[in-house]
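REVIEWER CHECKLIST
Item 1: Sequence provided? yes
Item 2: Single chain? yes
Item 3: Sequence as submitted:
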Amino acid sequence: MQKLKNTASENARILAQYINPEENFDVINKTITMGGRHAEFFFIDGFVKDDIMEKLMEAFIAISEKDMPKKAEGMIDLIPYVEVNPREDFETVVKDVLMGMVCMFVDGFATCFSIDCRTYPARNVSEPWKNRVLRGSRDGFVETIVSNVTLIRRRIRTPDFCVEMTSAGTMSKTDIAFAYIKGKCDMKLLAELKKRVNNIDVEALTMNIESLVEVLLKGSYLNPFPKFKYSERPDTAAAAIYDGNIVILVDNSPAVIIVPTSIFDICEEADDYYFPPLIGNYIKITRFFISLFSLYLTPVWVLLLANPQVVPAWLRFVLVDEGASTVPIVLQLIILEFCIDGLRLAAVNTPTLLSTPLSVIAGIVVGEYAVSSGWFCPESMLYMAFVTIGTYTQASYELGYAIKFFRMVFVILCGFFSIWGFIAGNVFMLLCLIFNRTISGKSYIYPLFPFDGKMLLRKLFRLRLGKEK
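Item 4: Structure as written out by the authors:
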């Protein structure tokens, strides 16, 4: 793209061809005289506050001819604002204007002075509804990347903490930031991530972090176990950075990506560390066993129904008469899996005032009539209710769905192949865990393999933080 001219009106004319202020009502072109010279301003109305522009204009109009510098460096010092950057070509100027900066042309300078006084519309910092904690900080990320970086930097006060900014999308120019501590993170992985972002060939990251993940991730998408950890909590992101991970922030997204992540990292939650070690371990172990029960409860039940002769006397209550219901047990469980997802989607799209009564109607009335009509047996409804509760004990949606997919595979295999199907399902799940790789190419089940006893103990149990000097 062409270089700038040393005439403000000519630069304004060329820039207007790119951003069309006559066709866009929110693109403002302001003309003033400062120090006896003609000056042109371009900015987007919604990104710049009126009081800031008024103070800038007052300062510019008050400049006398004798105060006007001869070089662009002197003009930068004369502008009464902190963040001012010189631009030499129209491509960068167009990008700055569309990002919300104020761009100023002044006669006699073949330079655009980009003033970063933008203020993005943003909601208040509040606790995320998904990653809530019983005790701990109540702040959460918002959709503005600068605010999110500030929330992390507030918790990390070492000079080795770095935040590098880049962008992706030929049309969207979405801001992407990499936050890490120099000397603790994997610098080779960081260089590789930046290289992949710079090589992204897409028009826009329309779905923010998910769009970025899909273009960063190489290889097959068939493995259901998540390769990334998402978080909306600044304390979780800061803790990950202290551990040597890299946090990727994307503008317009209230969540960040933590890499690299193993299965043990994804299972961790903030509540594990906001309580004393004994309570933290109890919460961690409880969540682990509930997740394990939600994975194996219905497949083992199907397995026991297929082999009633091996069921001990104290466990005979789990056996049911499959002839009492018109739908086979395996099919009942698969149908209920889809019904639960249907209820979840309906709850998301239902107006808030109606969500509670409709959930009651769907959960109680529909469930009651499904049993009374003979379609489903009460036991399948009970076990699926427990499975649903167990799914929500995991903060990671992706891990919850991975457990769900394997549970459905287990149910189908146990229904058709009995014990051999159960064994095959477990082998398949273990292979998915073993052959899965983090984005850095390392083992997904580290520190179990390769084995690191000290790190494994730290991942499995809540230990005391720090020691006396």
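Item 5: Key structural point noted by reviewer: Residues 371 and 403 are 26 Å apart (CA to CA).
Item 6: Recommendation: ____
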